[in-house]
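Same chain as my last thread, 275 residues:
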Amino acid sequence: MKKSLSISVKDISTEHSKFLSRIQREKRFIRLWQWSLLFLIFALWEWAARVNLIDSFITSQPSRIWATLVNLYLNGDLWRHIGLTLGETLAGFLSGTLLGALIAMALWWLPFAAKVLDPYLVILNALPKIAMGPILIVWIGNGPFAIVAMALLVSIIVTVISVYTGFIQTDTDKIYLLRAFGATKWKVFTKVVLPSNMANLVSALKINVGLSWVGVIVGEFLVSSGGLGYLIVYGGQVFQLDLVMASVIILCFLAALMYQSVLWVEKAMYRWRSG
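reply #2:
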């Protein structure tokens, strides 16, 4: 009996190892196709420009974009523009997420205030945030703080609404159970509401990655003397489409890297909760 039990456990362990290996192979295969597709897009783009199927003056081409990036690096401007935009985006992302989550917590804590402010949140969420750009410039001034404020404005309302919606949809049975045992409101929030909404908070982080970049680039379009948004506007004004496309590709890379960082945080959080 013991022998048959040990064999069955061994078989299960072997099958589990095979399953994990198959999952890893599938992930590597998908990743290979993703990079191959990206390489194919750039190769076709370069080929179409070289054989004059497309006008490289309008669409640019990978080789010209690479030359533009090299020139920016040699002139010492590349890292300055990247650092400025990245710093503004991180500031807007962190402040918008943190402040939005705190406001959502306050609304959950004060149901009457949430009911009073509900229509205002809806209106602010529907308001095109770019319309506030000139007002922010007048209020805050012509500088990085106005750009960070623009990024915060774009992301904070969405964060408040999404996080607060998750808070009020927490399982009421668990809340009633804790209250029946005399738990305070703070205990209910920290032991039930917040843990139940960790996935919702991570989703808010994912959404804010894109919104923060939108806010910063819009802000740099309106008022900036540096940054990737400034390069895009300047390149469009002087018809240097190579500069515009190079800036857009850098933005895509940085946004993808920032989103991947959020995914790493999500995995670390789930591992911590599992442990």
